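Continuing the series of single-chain predictions for the mutant panel. This is the parent chain; the variants come on the following pages.
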Amino acid sequence: MPKTNPQPNNSNLIPRPPIVVVMGHIDHGKTKLLDCVRKTKVAEGEAGGITQHIGAYEVEIKNKKITFIDTPGHEAFSKIRSRGARAADIAVLVVAADEGVKPQTVEAIKTIEQAQIPFLVAINKIDKPEANPEKIKKELSENNVFVEKWGGQVPAVNISAKTGEGVEELLETILLMAEMEELKADPNLPASGVIIESHLDPQRGNVATLLILNGFLKQGMSVKIFEDFLGKKIETAGFSSPIRITGFDELPEVGVVFQSFLSKKEALQYAETKKTPSPSLNFGETKKETESQTTQAILPIVVKADTAGSLEAVCEQIKKLEIPEVLLNILRRGVGNINEDDVKLASASEKNPVIVGFNVGYESKTAELAEKFGVLLKIFKIIYDINDWLKEEIVKRKPVVEKEVELGKVKILKIFRVEKDREIIGGKVSSGKIIKGKEAKILRRGADIGRVKILNLERGRIKTEQAEAGDEFGALVESKTSLSPGDELEVFEKQSL
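Parent structure:
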């Protein structure tokens, strides 16, 4: 019988460091705050000024450790943010003192409430002249967040991630909240926790960032490379630690709980008992065209990204962009660089396929193959740019829907000559007008029997561009349907909807 998941022994429980998630609207200073805490400068070089992946960092304050999770602020990464909140013990809601509560601030509040974790508010950028902390507290109260001194119990600390003002007080508040939560874990158990990111490394294979919530992980437990959050090789890691490991047969799914075992045999037995069908994330993949879809345009897409979390965010954005007239058909989604196999798959579609890459690259041979097969390769570093570019592609491929607008009706009085598909006719405009170059429906005793194109038009043997109600005219028309005296022509023009 396979062993069950090891359970903690209450007698072995010891205090563990808090895991803190930092959340808030884009550019409100989440990563700058962590920079200030860590005394590093990772925020300076980030594309678009945003954190594209979850970053987990361990810091030591007064001989006590705190693990911080930094989450992206852009709305495309909402799943990553909620994933971070589920792994955390405490949340820090960062709000810029000069801007106030914004859309992602509200979303962060909802995520924190759903995760049911305590939180505090960091009112950032108080060094700015336009900073107004009291206004921020009022806006928070309007979103059911009542801070201390505003009738609530949520701690609020004024800080400047730029100057460092208030950051020490913020950290002390976090440690105080952690004490009140009485966070504990069992050091004698094999490690368990949550996978917060994963990606394919060309040299090292499948790599995952793990956050240990309980127990210890040791070198040799079917783990090839074992690093801390700074990339330094380590031999053991305990609870609340963010670590990076390799050795996975398949790329781990982000957001899932992991459990370690002393032997591979035990792990395989446990995995066998937990097997469940993977939920489908498709929203267009491998759809077959049906009669109801024949009026749709199709945009075939292969999506590649550097990490599983980014891939999920990009695909979610693509899902939101789909419109009834254009089907966004994701042929493949994957982690890692764009390769020749991706190009071959895309080229099998005859509908101008594209390959979208997010923070990935491709070799020259791949580019040559794409050019040969007419597959468009597009690489992006900022998710906004994917949105903008795909919106343009969707507009280009949107089918033109036209309606026929009636211009006038004429009655055919005489047929002068017939030459193959062309006839010279004489008629009179009953209503509206007849215009050279336009088309007309052929009506015989009220029934629509075909179409005719008006090639030339004369009035009183003088060439003209149009004839109006009451005018008699002669016209050269082209039609596959033979005309007869008494037929009516309903002249129309096509207008795009």
